[in-house]
Design goal:
Elements lengths: L1 H28 L13 H14 L4 H13 L3 H14 L8 H14 L3 H14 L4 H13 L3 H14 L6 H11 L3 H14 L4 H13 L3 H11 L6 H14 L3 H12 L6 H17 L3 H14 L6 H12 L2 H8 L2 H15 L4 E9 L3 E9 L4 E9 L4 E2 L1 H13 L4 E6 L2 E2 L1 H6 L5 E4 L1 H9 L3
Parallel strand pairs: 3-5, 4-6, 5-7
Antiparallel strand pairs: 1-2, 2-3
Helix pairs in contact: 1-2, 2-3, 3-4, 4-5, 5-6, 5-7, 6-7, 7-8, 7-9, 8-9, 9-10, 9-11, 10-11, 11-12, 12-13, 13-14, 13-15, 14-15, 15-16, 16-17, 18-19
Length: 449
């Protein structure tokens, strides 16, 4: 008795659901006047007939099958899914239902709804029944792609192409699988093929450019990214990629322009937005726009307190913004940096007379060789300046110490805006070398005008 009541309730729910969908379909395209059904019946007539059948028996295939066909044909995936799910279940006990089609369409509906756990289950069943079916291979391959099971996706997608060489979306899916596996060069022919079939597909265009960029074809990729910058969907990502490329090429002003354009877009995905802000902040800092850079870094930190090295950068550049000489030491032009180093040498010993004999500017460090006269001493010294905030290791100081004899210098002093390693401190014990690290250097720089 209770079972009959339950079936009755289900039938009533189905009737109201069907009526709602009927109204939707009729509103969409006047389906009630189109004779696409069996025997010339309209969709509306088929739905009414199916409704009557399902009111009596919710598992009646003669009601479920036409209803599923209509839902599926109209792209009502959330409505079609439970119908075909029911048909797939019933197909196990009756030959009146095509097992492959029921499983396949249940899987396709699940893919369209981005329900890949269910699509995987039903499409695997369909594959077992018909492994050479084009749609089975296509949608199972797409499911594996979305589940990031690329090794399983590629064979299915390639088989789909063999069965249907002009298959829409399959070349793109293979390219995405190969790209995800970092097979950038191998992905390019598939992206190009997909683009030749649909030149206006921005997703394909962006994916191909990104693969070219990763494959070392930066100039070609940049042209595509610049073309995509205004696009409302792929524009933010394209601006980010273009900005990174320009930054790595040393063109920081172009990078700033790219990144600012990216941030003007609406509805930017959060991960892209925060990366655009972070990259733009770095560009500002690299071009000595410290306040702009700090402001953006603090914005990034408010969104994600542990994003990359944002905390360390805020701490570092907050100090820099209060110490103009430290700004010059770390990021000023070479000429300004050398002038500052001369001032440091002249001010290092209080009450001294310094005569600079030679200046040598290198990529890693800058040396100043000078005569120093104070009330207590008179000697020649080498002052070495490391322009870094990192840790300077022992090998650099060993080389520095060994070179003092060649220059006939009695002593050496090494400066860094970072730290010297523990091994370095141990090495200089008993040797005529002094180390000046960040804290002492910062104090010294504040005294120099």
């Amino acid at each position: 008795m209770s079972g009959n009541i339950f079936s009755y309730i289900i039938a009533i729910i189905a009737v109201f659901s069907v009526i709602g969908v009927l109204m939707l379909i009729m509103g969409r395209k006047g389906a009630s006047n189109s004779k696409n059904g069996k025997g010339g019946k309209t969709e509306g007539q088929l739905i009414k007939e199916a409704t009557r059948r399902l009111a009596k028996n919710p598992d009646d295939p003669n009601g479920l099958l036409p209803l599923g066909e209509i839902y599926f044909a109209n792209g009502l995936w959330d409505k079609a899914f439970p119908v075909y799910q029911n048909l797939a279940r019933l197909s196990l006990t009756t030959d009146r239902i095509d097992k492959t089609q029921a499983a396949l369409r249940t899987g396709i509906c699940a893919v369209k709804m981005e329900n890949y756990a269910d699509s995987s289950k039903y499409l695997i069943d369909a594959y077992k029944l018909d492994p050479h079916n084009f749609e089975v291979n296509k949608y199972l391959g797409i499911t594996y792609l979305k589940l990031q099971q690329y090794d399983k996706a590629i064979p299915c997608l390639k088989k789909a192409i063999m069965l249907e060489p002009s298959a829409e979306g399959v070349y793109l899916a293979i390219g995405q699988c190969l790209y995800a596996q970092k097979h950038y060069r191998e992905s390019l022919p598939y992206f190009k093929k997909a683009l030749s079939e649909d030149p206006g597909n921005k997703e394909t265009l962006f994916s191909m450019a990104d693969a070219m960029s990763e494959d070392g074809q930066g100039e070609k990729a940049l042209k595509v990214f610049m073309h995509l910058r205004p696009d409302p969907v792929y524009g933010p990502r394209a601006c980010l990629r273009a900005g990174v490329y320009h930054f790595n090429q040393g063109d920081k002003e172009s990078a700033i322009q790219d990144l600012k354009i990216g941030l003007k877009h609406q509805n930017i995905p959060q991960d892209i937005s925060i990366e655009l802000q972070y990259r733009l902040a770095i560009c500002y800092l690299e071009t000595s726009k410290f306040q702009d850079g700090l402001s953006l870094l603090r914005t990034v930190r408010s969104q994600n307190p542990n994003y990359k090295d944002v905390n360390a950068l805020v701490a570092r550049y907050a100090e820099l913004s209060q110490n103009a000489n430290l700004q010059v030491y770390l990021s000023g032009p070479v000429s300004d940096f050398v002038t500052l180093c001369r001032k440091i040498v002249n001010n290092f010993y209080k009450g001294s007379f310094v005569k600079i004999l030679d200046i040598s500017v290198g990529s890693v460090y800058t040396d100043i060789f000078a005569e120093v006269n104070t009330a207590r001493m008179e000697d020649t010294e080498v002052f070495r300046f490391f322009r870094t905030t990192g840790v300077t290791g022992e090998l650099y100081i060993r080389e520095f110490h060994d070179g003092l004899h060649d220059k006939k210098a009695e002593k050496g002093v090494c400066f860094t805006a970072g730290l010297f390693s523990d091994e370095t401190h141990k090495y200089i014990e008993g040797r005529p070398v002094d180390l000046v690290e960040k804290a002492q250097l910062s104090k010294l720089l504040k005294t120099i005008s």
